[in-house]
Amino acid sequence: MNPPYSTGLARKARLPDTPVAPTSGLNGSGRGFADPDGAYVGLAAGFATAATACPERLRVSDYQFAGSRIRLEVVGPRLAAVYERSLAHLRVDEGSGVPGLRIRVWHAAETGTVTPALASLDDPRSKGELTASADGNRLRLRRSHTLTAFDRPSGTVYGWIADLDLLGIYEMGRPFNSELLFWNKERGLQALHAGLVAHQGRGALITGPSGSGKSTTTLSCLLSGLDFLSDDYLAIRPDSEGHPTGHALFASAFVVADHLRTFPTLARIAVSARYADEEKSMVPLADLGNGPLADSARLSAIVLPRVTGRPTPRVRDASSAEALLRMAPSSMLMLQRAGVEDRVERQVELEALSRLVETVPAYWLELGGGVEQIPGLIRDILGSS
């Protein structure tokens, strides 16, 4: 059975026969959604309206991330299926306790619930705009065709998704990325733009700029049987013994279409870009079946791949300064894109990266020739670190 997004733009879901009437918190003007507090109240009312009117369309699923439970409640089974695939490796049985984070969204195209009348952004593929309430407790994130509001003290996100057919591949493969970043920061986790693979619980952090061979390295390791945690986004935090540990977020990889020719197994399940500015294809790794997806691993090595003209790949030692220079720019840019603009916060993140590279040994992985030897070299690195 094909995943709901595997054939490009999915068909429109049939709306309920009778459109759901608006409530006092879900008005047609959209004025109540202009600030974070109003957006939170209005979106909470909208979710309640959709869930009450379409209870048979509500899907609830739980996930475990870095010791905390996330509950996802989606009114709209097509949309829910997309999110569930992207988080499949973290899914656990539904628990009775209070989750650390609750995400409650409704899909207008499946429910027919009256939606906020928000003017579309000029650029339909805009990264969106993030605004915070005066006290910083609520965050409002607006993208084209979506609006979410995050109440940080209660750990609750409410959201409206206009139409699954309008979402880009990054919104499908990395759902609620910004909200998860802020939630993780409050729990002492640091976001990194890096790949992570593991062998026998020991993780190799794979980092570098675009075009350095990061995805090639992580995906060749995945297909060789090493545990896969990330190809570009993860979070780290010291474990109970103070050792840095990486935690996976999304069961998806993003690969330049030309590179997929190297991995025919992945090319068969890849989802092509929907918009002209999406430079990569999405690979929903849950569709590999019983693939080696892991949720966490201790960081034992930092690997810095780079493409060379060598006939075969080789490994050599790297300094902590070299590791920091390869890791910091993209990780700091990722924070900026997610809305972390405060200079002090970004300095704290940079200092944490500096401590990481002083703690974990780093190695250059000079790529050349085919990819077949890469997984063995990563195993060797992890065995010696």
Describe what this molecule looks like in 3D.
This protein is of the alpha+beta class. The protein has 2 domains: 31-186, no CATH class; 190-384, Rossmann fold (3-Layer(aba) Sandwich). The protein has 10 helices and 19 strands. The chain has helices at 36-53, 77-86, 108-111, 169-173, 177-186, 214-224, 264-267, 320-338, 343-359, 374-384, and strands at residues 58-65, 68-75, 91-92, 101-107, 129-132, 138-143, 146-151, 156-161, 190-192, 195-199, 202-206, 227-230, 234-238, 244-248, 252-256, 280-284, 296-307, 314-318, 362-367. β13 (234-238) and β14 (244-248) form a beta hairpin. α8 (320-338) packs antiparallel against α9 (343-359). The protein is globular. The model is unreliable at 1-31 and 118-123 (pLDDT under 50).
Parts with pLDDT < 50 across at least 5 consecutive residues: 1-31, 118-123
Helix content: 25-40%
Structural class: alpha+beta
Biggest sheet statistics: 9 strands, mixed
* Cα-to-Cα separation, first versus last residue: 42 Å
C-alpha-based Rg, rounded: 21 Å
Compute the average pLDDT: 85
How many beta strands in the DSSP annotation? 19
Q: How would the global form be characterised?
A: globular
What is the CATH C level class of the largest domain, in words? Alpha Beta
Number of helices: 10
> How many independent structural domains?
2
Identify the CATH architecture of the largest domain.
3-Layer(aba) Sandwich
Query: What amount of the residues lies in strands?
Result: 25-35%
SSE pattern: HEEHEEHEEEEHHEEEHEEEEHEEEHHEH
